[in-house]
Amino acid sequence: MKFIAPLCIISLTINFCFGQTNTLSEKFLASQTDKYTQEELNDNTQYFRLLLPLRKSATSSKAVELKSKIVHSTKNSRYVERNQLIGFYVFEYPNKKVCKLAVDSLLQCFPNFCVQVERGKPINDKITPSVYIINDKTVYCIETFCEDVNEEWEKILKSFVDAFADKSSTIILTECGKLEWTTKEKLLK
C-alpha cells in the first residue's frame, strides 16, 4: 500500500506532461487543416529515418506529413507546379539529459546529407529547410524541400515557432544550404 500513492503521482505526472505535448501538437496540426491535408507517417519514411538519432531514445514520437491543398511553383521548382510538402515531427524524452544526448547524436550526422554540426556555430552546407525547437524534454521539427519554400512556408514556420518555442528553447533554423542557431524573438520579428 505504501507504494501505490507515489506510483499514482508518477503516473499522473507522466500523463499530464505527455498529454500537454500531444495537446499542443494536435492544436497546431488542427490549425493547418484549412490549407493542408495530413497523413501520419510510418517509421520507413525517408526523413523520419534520417531522424533516427532523435527517435532511438525517445519515449514517444510522432510524424505527420502536411500536403498543401493547392499547387504552387517557385524558382527552386523551376516553376513546375507542385503541392507543398511539410514534415512535422515530435520527440519526447524522459528527462533533460536524455534529450541533450539525442540532440548531440543528431548533430553528428545532421539530415539530409550527414553534415556534422557544432552547437551554436552556423554552417553553409547541403541542408534542406527545417526548424528544430529543442526544449528540456521535447524536440519539435518541421522540414520541407527547397522547392517548397514560399510565403506559406514562412507563415507556417512562424506559427510553429510561436506554438512550441519559449525563451529558453534552443532553435536550429536551416535554409537551402545554410544552418544557424537562433531564438524565438529573432524568428518572430
**Run of helices and strands:** HEHHEEHEEEHEEH
Structural class: alpha+beta
In angstroms, what separates the terminal alpha carbons? 54 Å
Taking the sheet with the most strands, its summary is:
8 strands, antiparallel
Number of domain modules: 1
Give the overall shape, derived from the CA principal axes: globular
Q: What is the helical fraction, as a range of percent?
A: 25-40%
Cross-sheet strand order for the largest sheet: 1-2-3-6-5-7-8-4
- Spans of 5+ residues with little confidence (pLDDT < 50)? 1-18
Count every helix, treating DSSP H or I runs of 4 or more residues as helices. 6
Mean pLDDT, as a whole number? 85
Radius of gyration: 17 Å
